[in-house]
UniProtKB/TrEMBL annotation:
InterPro entries, alphabetized: Dysbindin (IPR007531)
One Pfam family linked to the record: Dysbindin
Membrane topology per record: Peripheral membrane protein
Superkingdom of origin organism: Eukaryota
Predominant localisation class: membrane
Family statement drawn from the similarity comment of this UniProt entry: Belongs to the dysbindin family.
GO cellular component annotations of the record: axon cytoplasm; BLOC-1 complex; endoplasmic reticulum; endosome membrane; melanosome membrane; nucleus; plasma membrane; postsynaptic density
Keyword terms: Coiled coil, Cytoplasm, Cytoplasmic vesicle, Endoplasmic reticulum, Endosome, Membrane, Nucleus, Synapse
GO biological process, one term: neuron projection development
Compartments where located: Cytoplasmic vesicle, Secretory vesicle, Synaptic vesicle membrane; Endoplasmic reticulum; Endosome membrane; Melanosome membrane
Extent of the signal sequence: none
Protein name listed in UniProt: Dysbindin-like
Lineage, uppermost ranks: Eukaryota, Metazoa, Chordata, Craniata, Vertebrata
Amino acid sequence: MLESLRERLLSVQQDLSSGLKIFSDKSREAKINKQRTAQNLPEFSAGLVLLSRYEDSWAALHKGAKECAKTGELVDSEVVMLSAYWEKKRSGLLDLQHQLQQIPVFLAGLESTTASLVQLEAHFKEMEHHLLHLEDLRGQCELQRYKHMQILQHENYKKTKRKELEIFKAELDTEHVQKVLDMEHTQEMKLKERQKFFEEAFQQDMEQYLTTGYLQIAERRGKY
């Protein structure tokens, strides 16, 4: 609509320019004819007055046409600016229309994304469940490993204590054997001393018996 108005204004401007040009040419011809007529017919003053009025009218029309042309140029510039403005608005409206046309596609993509998010949430919950189960298994493995370490430590402790007990038994056996040997040696020494005492006493008794014919056995029994 604005383009057609602009074209009409341009055509009117061109028509006005061409009409002004024609009027100018006719005015020049009228002046030339006036001069010729004034030279040839000086007695027709009434015709000259009419012709002068005619020229003044055409001059006023020419001036009005120029003003109309300037106004048309201003209107044309305004129309151009208005056309650019509405062209910009139309472009924005077309962009908005294009974006509005893309809304169903966007909504479909949004629904697909929402469904994907719901599915991801389900996967996250399942993964969290598996992670908790894995944490439980890890705790059980740690407990089993701790038990195994405790069993190994207990076995090592039992082996150590068994070795210490064997060493202690060996020491006790050695000490017992040594004590037995010492006791046997002490008993043997006592027996030897007693035997020696009895031998000496027997010798004395024999000597006394041989000398006196009398034995003092009861007196010596109280010593042993």
